[in-house]
Amino acid sequence: MAAYWLFKSEPQVFSIHDLHKAPGKKTSWEGIRNYQARNYLRDTVRKGDGVLFYHSNADPMGIVGTAQVVKEAYPDHFAWDPSHRYHDPDSSPDKPTWFMVDIRLQTTFPRIITRDMLAADPVCSGMLVLKRGSRLSIQPVTEAEWLAVQRLAES
DNA sequence: GCCAACGTTGGC
DNA sequence: GCCAACGTTGGC
Predict the structure, then answer these.
(1) Which nucleotide's C1' sits nearest to the alpha carbon of A135?
(2) Which residues of A52-75 are buried (b: 16+ CB within 10 A; e: fewer)?
(3) Which of A8, A28, A87, A93 has the fewest CB atoms within 10 Å, measured from its CB?
(4) Does domain A4-154 sit in CATH 3.10.590.10?
(5) What's the average model confidence in pLDDT over A50-79?
(6) Closest nucleotide to A38: CA versus each C1'
C-alpha cells in the first residue's frame, strides 16, 4: 500500500512551478543532507507514494500541490561533484552517503494550503510540519492527513 | 532581521 | 563519550 510524504522546498531554490516546467514534469530530489531524511528516502519512500509539495521560507508558505514518487532511492551523485553546492567529500560512488528519489508532478492546487488553514483543520493540525522547530525536510504524512489536505484543496 | 530548535564538529 | 561552540533551518 502506498505511503504519503511531505517534501519541503524553498521556492526560490526549486518551486512547484519549476517542477511544472520540467521535462515530463519530473525531477530528481537531490541535496538531502540530513540523516533522518536520508533514511526515509533510502529505506521507506517507495515508487507510487504520494508527496505533498510544501513551500518553506516563502510568502505564503504552505502545501502547493501533490506529486508521485516515480523512482526509488539511488545515490545522490551531486555529492561527488566538488564544484556543486551539494558536494560532500565523505560520500563516494563506492559508498554513497546520500540518496535521492525522482518525483512527478500530479496536481498544482488552485490555491496554497497555508499553515493557518492546516492549523484550523482538526486532522491537519497534528501534522509534523506545523510543529515548532520541525526542520525535517522529508516528513511522513498519514493517510488521514493526506485525505484532509485533498479536501482543503477542493473546498 | 531575530531567534528557537537542533544537528554537527571537535577538543578533551 | 561528553559537551561547548558553531552552523543551519525556517517560522515569525
Answers:
(1) C9
(2) bbbbeeeeebbbbbbbbbbeebeb
(3) A93
(4) yes
(5) 96
(6) B7
